[in-house]
Amino acid sequence: MSYGIPSAEPSADVPVCPRHPDRPSYVRCQRCGRPACPECQRAAAVGFQCVDCVNEQKRSTPEYKSPYGGTLAVGRPLVTYLIIGVCVLVYILQWVLPGEVIFQNFAFANIFADTEPWRMLTSAFLHSQGFLLHIVLNMYTLWIFGQALEPLLGRIRFLAVYLISAVGGSVGYLLLTPSFPVVGVVGASGAIFGLFGAMLVVQRHRGGETKQLWVLIAINGAIGFFVPTIAWQAHLGGLIAGGLAAGVIAYAPRGKNQALLQTGGLVLVVALLAIATLVRVTAG
Fold it and tell me: Does the active-site annotation cover 189?
């Protein structure tokens, strides 16, 4: 005599998940009211929503833009934190790795402008091992200005301004140093001054007050002329490059071609830096 096994299929009176009809579900979506099995449930502000409603809501929710065309960077300034993290990591490596391998391979000096131009960027992520405040002050200033600029410009545009400013600092040092010293130059100061210039441009474009910024730039710029170890040339180069990059972003006409115009303008700024480098290297 054999005994049958009851069917696992739900009866007509048992609610089932529309995506998985073989699964009974007594939890209903707070939005559409349909049953949803555990696999199809998504936590909501109140209760659960089904995966279909969540996907539909994502498609229908508009993507908010920053005032200058980038995706609005809500929440924490992730790019700012990323740059700080990279600088801190590189600083640790400067101490951990034997000798001065990081400094020797990534610091910028004018003699490397034509043979190893990438040093114009990598040097901005290195800092002096003999002066702890060098990295502390730079990272603190980056944190302050990053929180203000990154949400306004958008993450990608903010990163572009920072990197262009870093290169601009190296180009400024190259152009304004009368000879080609072998001494390496490191530090994010050029990029930080680029953020000063970017904030100045953005504030003027938005009609905000700029007197305090001018005072900040003047004080920090003057320090470079009184402390021999500070490259004021890099500060000036970064300030100009950051201001130009931010100007391209801020003053590009709004519309469907805004991103294209901004990209073209940033490429032009990079091209100007490259041309200036080439002319200086050729002139010797």
Answer: yes
How many helices, marked H, and strands, marked E, lie in the chain?
10, 2
Instruction: Answer whether 234's CB lies under 8 Å from 173's CB.
Output: yes
Amino acid at 108: F
Distance of alpha carbon 122 from its chain centroid, rounded?
16
The amino acid occupying position 224 is G
Name the token pair of 12: 């007509």
CA–CA dist 259, 276 (Å, integer): 26
Residue 232: HSE in the Cβ half-sphere, 13 Å Cα cutoff: 12
> For 45-62, how does the pLDDT look when each residue is reduced to its tens digit (9 = 90+)?
667 788 888 888 777 655
Under 8 Å between Cβ of 13 and 35: no
Give the start-end residues of each E strand in the chain.
Answer: 41-43, 48-50
- Give the pTM: 0.77
Answer yes or no: are the C-beta atoms of 18 and 10 closer than 8 Å: no
Amino acid identity at 229: T
- How buried is 210 (Cβ within 10 angstroms: 0-12 exposed, 13-18 middle, 19+ buried)? middle
Question: Distance (Å, rounded) from C-alpha 199 to C-alpha 243?
Answer: 8
Mean predicted confidence (pLDDT) in 228-249: 93
Q: Is residue 2 annotated as a catalytic residue, yes or no? A: no
CA-nearest of 111, 143, 100, 107 to 126 is 107
> Which one of 2, 7, 189, 205 is the catalytic residue?
189
Cα→Cα distances 3→6, 10, 11, 18, Å: 10, 20, 21, 32
Other Cβ atoms less than 10 A from the Cβ of 107: the count is 18
pLDDT digits (tens, 9 = 90+) for 251-278: 998 888 888 999 999 999 999 999 999 9
